[in-house]
Amino acid sequence: MKRFLLPLASALALAFPLFAEVTVTRGTDRIDVAIGGKPFTTLYLGGAATKPYLHPLRAAGGKIVTRRFPMEMVEGESRDHKHHRGLWFSHGDVNGINFWENEASYAPDRPNIGPIVPEKPAKITSGKDKGTIDAIFDWKDTKGKVLLTETRKMIFYDKPAERVIDFDIVLKAVEKVTFNDTKEGTFAIRLADSMSEKKGGLMTNAQGAKGMKNVWGKPSPWVEYVGDVEGEKVAVAILDHPGNPKHPTYWHSRDYGLFAANIFGEHDFFDDKKRNGAVTIEPGKELRFRYRVIIEAPGADLAKAYAAYGK
Known about the structure:
Blueprint: H1 8-19, E1 22-27, E2 30-35, E3 38-44, E4 53-54, E5 87-91, E6 116-125, E7 130-140, E8 146-158, E9 163-173, E10 177-179, E11 185-190, E12 202-205, H2 212-215, E13 222-229, E14 232-240, E15 258-261, H3 266-269, E16 279-281, E17 286-296, H4 302-310
């Protein structure tokens, strides 16, 4: 009997996906991420998506910590702010273009909306300990002209009891662009209604301040939002890298479940019309943002986790 032996490299290539703990799979206008064979999240980009977003986000046990609307219609769920899609990065005023409230259905009432679209297919990798998505997006004005390019790397880690994503976002100006002062931005998650402070949840920042009144608009290197998901307490934290512009960031975090880091909205956060938090990027120059998102059970030592992230 003849035996056909595959070359070692080919055999390993075939076997590797079976052992990969973080699996990243490309689809049409989407990229799926699974951890330990279970779905974690999906990146929607291009197609009908006017900005890239991750939906849904799941805790290690599989429970969904982000609001389903508008991607899914769930009875009893809130339906405000249609542009709050899972987890996303955009801003409400870049050279007068609104990339935050940029739903296609808003176009008749908001003529200044712009899309954030893939510049080319993303690179993806799967692995035993982590998986990655490397993507490039164009931020376009109302006439389709590219104002800036965004290079984004997302790393999804395999952790037994938590879910961790690192974001490394580099914005390069094609022409002179200004991120104008508005609270409508920038790195954001819309949490499940049940996690919101209106439903008994609680946000706490690195200084120990608690509740929207004491967290919204205040600078802090990290904020944790804790709430209930199907009878289980879950914590979602956003960590602002110490190398980020204006670190520590301000927080546009609301009691209804919006959870966002925003360095630009100073006149709103300080209630001072004379303040201007705008940032300008000259042509060819770059602005870099890094964030870590952690989904886990409450009670973790976030100060220790942040120190490790900062290194």
